[in-house]
Write a structure and sequence with these properties.
By secondary structure, the chain is of the alpha/beta class. The protein contains eleven helices and eleven strands. An eleven-stranded mixed beta sheet has the order 3-2-1-4-11-10-5-6-9-7-8, with helices on both faces. Helix 5 packs antiparallel against helix 11. The longest helix has 26 residues. The mean pLDDT is 90.
């Protein structure tokens, strides 16, 4: 199996990306193709004692880097020779089986759509992010599409359900539609129509509308929404996690007695921190593409990149792209026949 890794994108690139690549290079049966400035890659690796001179690691040069400030379409325009664009072209050409990048989300989504392209019949690809709640909850979409049509909610639910079944091992995942109330008539016109379509879709376990307050308690396994709302939920979750951990630290650092008591619950605090840690899941797949693309968090460290590579491998092993195509294409063909 060959996984392409964009090592120049992200807040901690290239150092932490290379550390993740070095860790992943120990995985059995894996070849890694890393894209970026060969000079920078080798200088960074040598300066930090990172071993990339291995038989299963190859470097493909790229002249530029897409920054977080660059426009999404720069990946196919001004910076078509960037590490991200080069990686996506290699993936589209069949040089690799999947790709990992911690770079600009908008550029990665735009580039993936225009270069790798969607599965035929899929109307929108979307970022599927695991939220660290009571039960891991897949948020679909978490930032790729600002607005979506009612029938796209259905495709999101179908793709996300497959992912939870095949990758996360959740049997018959419960699908909730994020809304401001439980009643079918709540929300915008699009959301109300989406509710009616989801209710009539037989191949998903739709449980109705779900409010934001129900998500942390494990109210559903898949939360379907548009990318605008989903990204707000994602960022709020990340912020709350950081805030809670900082307040816990304040409590235990208050005096000598609280510091002593912190030692007694040290393992519990560590587990809580891990529960909020995005590196435990590695990254978010862009579901609906013709090849697996994993979006790692912009601030990913080596462990997060390692886990993102493992997630990419699971997507390839599970034949996720084929599974999605087989689930959605018959529905599309049936609709065309009716029309």
């Amino acid at each position: 199996m060959k996984i392409i890794v964009d090592v120049m994108s992200g807040d901690n690139a290239p150092l932490e990306i290379l550390r993740g690549v070095e860790m992943a290079s120990e995985l059995e049966g894996l070849e890694l193709i890393i894209t970026g400035s060969e000079e920078t890659i080798r200088e960074t690796a040598e300066a930090h004692g990172i071993s990339i001179n291995k038989d299963n690691i190859s470097v493909v040069g790229a002249e530029s880097v897409i920054t977080m400030e660059d426009a999404p379409l720069s990946v196919v325009r001004e910076k078509s020779n960037s590490s991200m664009a080069v990686g996506l072209k290699l993936l589209a050409e069949g040089a690799g089986d999947a790709m990992v990048s911690a770079g600009n989300t908008g550029a990665l989504h735009a580039g993936s759509t225009l270069i790798v392209r969607r599965i035929k019949g899929v109307k929108k690809s979307a970022i599927a992010t695991i939220l660290p709640y009571k039960n891991p909850t897949l948020l679909m979409d978490s930032g790729a599409n600002i607005e979506i049509a009612p029938d796209v909610y259905v495709q999101f639910a179908q793709m996300a359900s497959l992912y939870m079944e095949r990758i996360m091992g959740v049997e018959s995942p419960r699908v909730g539609l994020l809304n401001i109330g439980a009643e079918p008539t709540k929300g915008t016109k699009n959301v109300v129509e989406a509710y009616n379509l989801l209710k009539e879709t037989p191949d998903i376990n739709f449980i109705g509308n779900i409010e934001g307050k129900e998500l942390p308690g494990g109210g559903c396994d898949v939360c379907v929404t548009d990318g605008f709302t989903g990204n707000i939920v994602l960022k709020l979750t990340e912020g709350c996690g950081s805030f809670i951990m900082s307040k816990i630290k304040e409590i235990y650092k208050k005096n000598a007695v609280t510091k002593m008591s912190a030692l007694m619950v040290k393992n519990g605090i560590k587990k809580l921190k891990n529960d909020f840690d995005a590196s435990e899941y590695g990254g978010a797949p862009l579901l609906g593409l013709s090849k697996p693309v994993i979006k790692a968090h912009g601030s990913s460290d080596g462990l997060a990149i390692y886990n993102a590579v493992r997630q990419a491998m699971r997507c390839v092993d599970s034949n996720m792209v084929y599974e999605i195509a087989m689930k959605l294409v018959p529905n599309i063909m049936e609709q065309q026949n009716r029309d």
